[in-house]
Amino acid sequence: MTFLYAFLVGGLICVIGQLLMDLTNLTPAHVMTLLVVFGAVLDGFGLYEPLIKLAGAGATIPITSFGNALVHGAMAEAEQHGLVGIITGIFEVTSAGVSAAIVFSFFAALLFRPKG
C-alpha cells in the first residue's frame, strides 16, 4: 500500500502543477513557486508531516517538500535559538540538497556538451 499511496500523492501533486500550467497563464516558474509555498503553508499548519508518513517518497520528492523543509527547519531552529534560528534553520535543513544539486550540475556540465 505504501507504493500506491506514494504514487497517488506524488501524482496528484504533479497533476495539480500540470493543470496550473495548462489552464492558466502561469509560467513554470510561477507554478513551482506556488507549489513551494503550498508545501510551506501545509507544514505551517502541521499537515505536511502526516502526508509524508502516509505517502513517503510521494510527498518528499515533489517540489512541495522543499517548502516543507524550509518551514520545518526554520520552526525547529526558532524553538532553540529564537529569531536567529529562523534564518539558520532554513539553511541548515536545505543546504545538503542545494549543495548536491550544484556539485552534480557542475560535473554534468564538465561531462556533457549542449547541442544548441
Q: Shape, please?
A: globular
User: How many strands appear in the DSSP assignment?
Assistant: 0
As a whole number of angstroms, the C-alpha radius of gyration is 16 Å
Question: Mean pLDDT, as a whole number?
Answer: 90
Structural class comes to mainly alpha
Portion of residues within helices: over 70%
Q: Number of helix segments?
A: 6
**Major sheet summary line:** none
Approximately how much beta-strand content do the residues carry? under 5%
Order of helices and strands: HHHHHH
InterPro entries: Spore_V_AE, SpoVA
Keywords: Membrane, Transmembrane, Transmembrane helix
Protein name: Stage V sporulation protein AE
Pfam family, one: SpoVAC_SpoVAEB
Write the layout of secondary structure elements.
Layout: H1 2-23, H2 28-44, H3 48-55, H4 57-60, H5 64-81, H6 83-111
Give an overview of the whole structure.
It comes from Tumebacillus algifaecis. Keywords: Membrane, Transmembrane, Transmembrane helix. This is Stage V sporulation protein AE. It is a single chain. This protein is mostly helical. The protein has one domain (2-111). It has helices at residues 2-23, 28-44, 48-55, 57-60, 64-81, 83-111. It is globular and about 50 Å long. The protein starts with a helix and ends in a 5-residue tail after the last helix. The model has no long low-confidence stretch (mean pLDDT 90).
Q: Characteristics of this structure?
A:
116 residues, globular, mainly alpha
In short:
This protein has helices at about 1-25, 30-45, 50-55, 55-60, 65-80, 85-110.
